[in-house]
Amino acid sequence: MNPPETITPAQAGRARAILGLVIAGTALVVIDMTIVTIGLPEIQAELGGTLAGVQWVIVGYMITMGAVTQVAGSLSDQLGRRRMYLLGIIVFTIASIACGVAPNTVLLDLARALQGIGGAILMVNALPLLSHQFEGERRNMAISTWGTAATAASLIAPLLGGVLVDALSWRAIFLINVPIGVAAMVIGLRTLPADAPAGHERGRTDWAGAALLITALALVTFALLRGEQQGWGSATTLAQFTVAVILFTGFLRLQSRADASILDVKLFRKPAFSGAALAVFMSRVLTIGGTVYFVQYFQSSLHLSPTQSGLLLMPVFLAQMAAGMLGGKLLSRLPSGYVIATGYACKAVGATLLALAFTPTIQPWLLTLPLLIWGIGGGIAGAPVMAVAMNVTDKDRAGMVAGTITSLASIGAGIGTAVLGLVYQTRVAGALATDSALPDGPRDAIRAAAANGDIQRIMELTPLETKTAVEHALATAIASGASAVLYCSAGLAAITMAAVLILISKRNLPTPDKSRKPATGTDPAPVGDRG
Fold first, then answer.
1. Is the separation of the CB atoms in 118 and 95 below 8 Å?
2. Residue 217's pLDDT is what?
3. Is there a contact between 294 and 421 (Cβ–Cβ < 8 Å)?
4. What does each C-alpha distance from 226 to 51, 113, 320 come to in angstroms?
5. Are the C-beta atoms of 40 and 173 separated by less than 8 Å?
6. pLDDT digits (tens, 9 = 90+) for 193-225
7. In whole angstroms, how large is the CA radius of gyration of the chain?
8. Which residue in 389, 417, 393, 416 sits closest to 405, CA to CA?
9. Between residues 312 and 54, which one has the greater pLDDT?
10. E strands along 396-487, which residues?
């Protein structure tokens, strides 16, 4: 046995500073995944526009983050962790400023996409930086501390967002990143070790693959969000879907031949890996995508303040953290497929109970129990995912596996927001269109505004004498839309549960190698993906 390496006080201090830096960067990225959902109603109220335009505030961030993760990792290998991490801080901070001062939703959406690129750079370099600075048990402790801090960041995000929006403005949820980013930049310049000189051999970066993936995802998401407004059978919508399919097909063909691919399609030949990938993708579809419409219901139907909405969401994240630990322990007693399926069963039950409870007159505290069940399901389902993915692939492909799972998690959040938004918007428009409270004169214009999710326009079109009746009809329609999202989520959770039981079965998992310590539920998972 080799003697433990002697660490000088200066080295220990530098390592702690880098741990703090990585935690700060990760906290920025994780908080911005969910904090924005609290501010969406306020953003739409101030900047105007359709629900589809506001949804891009979530979609743009998540899709670009997922699509460029592998490219960011490849560039970091080539250019050095220090350079790339500092670049990530700069990009994220500048994008946060642009978000905070955006005069309209178009510029806000573009700034969020840029913020997603900065987030991908920060996230892909977090574990390598920690692994380089710490050894042995100190490394395990550092990674554990980092993961715990990331989970805590996701816990406080909804409440923090609510407080900032109520006390200041929705712009504060972006501008609060700026002083943190500046401080992180100063710390990074002082503490990050210099990059080694670049060698003569440099790996290739799959720029073409990244461009194809981003464009395909953007087109299909745009078609989903704008389909109601454009017409589902219109030439424009059909062309968007067709081009997206062509681009994604080209992306897959390129990945099967590329030396440095964004996505190793061969990984999906293993059923257990496909099951883990599906589980993490659907986790974000339901959790991030669903949360957007939770908040719409809380604020526009129950008329809760942003702070009250954040408090109401706290049980979800608290339950996720506790259940994530339980999920890790269950792995020692039950097959991983059963553990993940149990989580999705809880998701389905929680979603069904919430769908039944979502009415405009319910007391908010009565939602606590189904929200807890929903959160428990997410925690249990998320814990084993990375362990399964790592255990069924070769160790020398660990980087590709981690990047693929992380990318799918981010992309799932973007796609989930769009798909569940389609369910929500269609149901709200349908419920409002048949309500007798709508005034006869502007009825058609109000229906059109409802189809676009433009609540502000609905109220502008409503005569003063019918405003109270229309507000009640709108609250009922929004509650109905949120219920439809939850029923859809329950169905998706049940389908995922069945798929996981088939794909992550005992026959598809490797026989345990007693000479090698197995991965556990405490292995680093995509940060923020405990739901």
1. yes
2. 79
3. no
4. 10, 18, 33
5. no
6. 777 665 544 556 667 777 787 788 778 777 776
7. 23
8. 389
9. 312
10. none
Q: Pull the structure tokens for residue 506.
A: 């005992």
**DSSP for 472-509?**
HHHHHHHHHHHHHHHHHHHHHHHHHHHHHHHHT-GGGS
Cα–Cα distances (Å) from 456 to 58, 166, 300, in that order, read: 20, 19, 11
HEC letters along 66-105: HHHHHHHHHHHHHHCHHHHHHHHHHHHHHHHHHHHHCCCH
Q: Give me the count of residues in the chain.
A: 531
CA distance linking residue 89 with residue 531, whole number of Å: 26
Amino acid at position 343, single letter: G
The two tokens of residue 207 are: 């720029």
pLDDT of residue 270: 84
pTM higher than 0.70, yes or no?
Answer: yes
Helix (H) and strand (E) counts for the chain? 18, 0
Between these two residues, 157 and 530, which has the higher pLDDT value? 157
Q: How far apart are CA 155 and CA 315, in angstroms?
A: 9
Whole-angstrom Cα distance, residue 527 to residue 273?
19
pLDDT at residue 352 greater than cutoff 70: yes
Gap between the Cα atoms of 152 and 462, Å rounded: 43
Distance of alpha carbon 48 from alpha carbon 51, whole angstroms = 9
Position 518 scores a pLDDT of 45
Give tens-digit pLDDT for 110-151.
899 899 999 988 988 887 887 777 776 677 677 767 776 777
Mean predicted confidence (pLDDT) in 38-48: 84
Instruction: Summarize the confidence of residues 385-399 as an average pLDDT.
Output: 69
Helix (H) or strand (E) holding 193: none
- Scored b (16 or more CB within 10 A) or e, 233-254 reads eeeebeebbeebeebbebbeeb
Cα 107 to the chain's mean position, in Å?
21
Q: What is the pLDDT of residues 84-113, one digit of tens each?
A: 889 999 999 999 999 999 998 889 988 998
Q: How far from 292 is each of 11, 35, 486, CA to CA, in Å?
A: 44, 10, 12
Please name the residues in contact with 353: beta carbons below 8 A apart, sequence gap of 6 or more: 369, 370, 373
- Read off the amino acid at residue 445: A
pLDDT in tens, 465-485: 777 887 888 888 889 999 999
pLDDT computed for residue 91 by the predictor:
94
The DSSP code sequence of 332-374 is TTS-HHHHHHHHHHHHHHHHHHHHHH--TTS-GGGGHHHHHHH
| Through-space distance between the first and last CA atoms of the chain, rounded to whole angstroms | 41
Tokens of 245: 């399919």
d(CA 1, CA 528): 37
